[in-house]
UniProtKB/TrEMBL annotation:
PANTHER family: CENTROSOMAL PROTEIN OF 41 KDA (PTHR44390:SF1). One of its GO terms (biological process) is cilium assembly. Belongs to the CEP41 family. This is Rhodanese domain-containing protein.
């Protein structure tokens, strides 16, 4: 036997384990960390949903980041509106209290009634004139018969506020940090689009005169504001983003994945209308789409509270860390192993007891009857 001969064979390392197609879909629940298979799966998902290129000159924005931005903008606008409403109500209450007191004071002095408060004798005539002159000039003219007092003014103000509030709900968020542009055609936009999205078809970029809207010019290279473009699968949006970046837009972002990724991760709350079938990948969603009635998209600029709660729930499901899943799966596996061992031990005890019982019964049957 020669000494130069190695132990084993080099072919064992290159030998591939045969795969069974029956169990190809079965995957481990334990998170074992980074691996080559996970990296390849991530690359496959990127190539399937996203269209990355090496020579891209525009920036990208994830769908999850956009969802967080929507939630923050909605919460800040609600806080600002509540503060403004509280300040306006407080100022109106103060004005109403002051006007009532001034009316009483002016009525007493205009009628010349000596039945004033017991402390009225301590006040000089000049002081009373100063108090009355500090009040509204319209009230003096009303009491003297030179004008009319509109008693329904407060009622009209409340009616105007009630009418203006739904109008404010239909307007975009004040000082919104993002401008969302849909570069698809009008028919596709009317069928389905993201809430608060403006229609900006890609054909407008080929115009020689006024290719941009008023909103686009307001957001162009403005500090603290960005422009986001999207379509169904990044085919048209990437071209439009490239052209606009070449024309001097520095705060332009492309929504990665477009409606295709939104339909997978945020199927409810983010869009209005019926999602196109090209964006639905799973067969269950396709069946639900066929069974449901297609509704036209509503042109809205704000998200409702129900839609915001749905977006928050779906975002929390996406952003759950993998460590918790691995811990839960390890606990489940340990509990299942302990339960299996307990079941095995109980089964063995039952078998032993049954065996002893059969032996005893056989012994009793072999004995003669007394």
């Amino acid at each position: 036997m020669s000494l130069n001969r190695g132990i084993g064979s080099g072919q064992y390392m290159t030998k591939k384990i045969p795969k069974n197609r029956k169990f190809q879909h079965v995957k481990s629940r334990l998170d074992t960390g980074c691996s080559l298979s996970k990296y390849l799966e991530k690359l496959e998902e990127i190539n399937k949903n996203y269209r990355y290129r090496k020579d891209e000159i525009f920036k990208r924005l994830k769908v999850t980041t956009f969802a967080q931005l929507v939630l923050q903008v909605a919460s800040v606008s609600d806080l600002n509106e509540s503060e403004i409403d509280g300040e306006s109500r407080g100022s109106e209450d103060r004005l109403s209290v002051v006007s009532d007191a001034d009316l009483e004071c002016l009525s007493e002095h205009a009628n010349g009634s000596p039945q004033a408060s017991p402390h009225s004798g301590l006040v000089d005539a000049g002081d009373t004139r100063d108090i009355c002159s500090s009040t509204r000039s319209t009230l003096l003219s009303v009491i003297n018969g030179m004008g009319e007092l509109n008693m329904d003014r407060n009622h009209q103000k409340t009616e105007k506020e009630s009418v203006s509030r739904p109008e404010l709900a239909d307007r975009p968020y004040p000082d919104c940090p993002y401008l969302l542009l849909d570069v698809r055609d009008r028919d596709q936009y009317d069928c389905c689009h993201i809430i608060s999205a403006h229609r900006f078809p890609i054909a407008m970029l080929s115009q020689t005169m006024n290719p941009y809207t008023k909103e686009v010019l307001e957001y162009k290279n403005t500090a603290g504001k960005i422009i986001i473009m999207y379509d169904e699968d990044e085919r048209m949006a990437s071209q439009a983003a490239t052209v606009m970046c070449q024309r001097g837009f520095e705060n332009l972002f492309l929504l990665s994945g477009g409606l295709k990724v939104i339909a997978q991760r945020f199927p409810e709350g983010m869009t209005t209308g019926s999602i196109p079938t090209s964006c639905l990948s799973s067969p269950t969603s396709l069946r639900a789409k066929r069974s449901s009635v297609s509704l036209p998209a509503e042109k809205r600029w704000r998200f409702t509270p129900d839609e915001l709660t749905k977006i928050q729930e779906q975002l929390e499901e996406i952003l759950i860390p993998s460590n918790s899943n691995s811990c839960m799966s390890s606990r489940a596996s340990s509990s299942s192993s302990s339960s299996s061992t307990s079941k095995a031990s109980s089964a063995r005890s039952r078998q032993s007891s049954s065996a002893s019982g059969t032996d005893s019964s056989r012994g009793q049957s072999s004995r003669p009857w007394k």
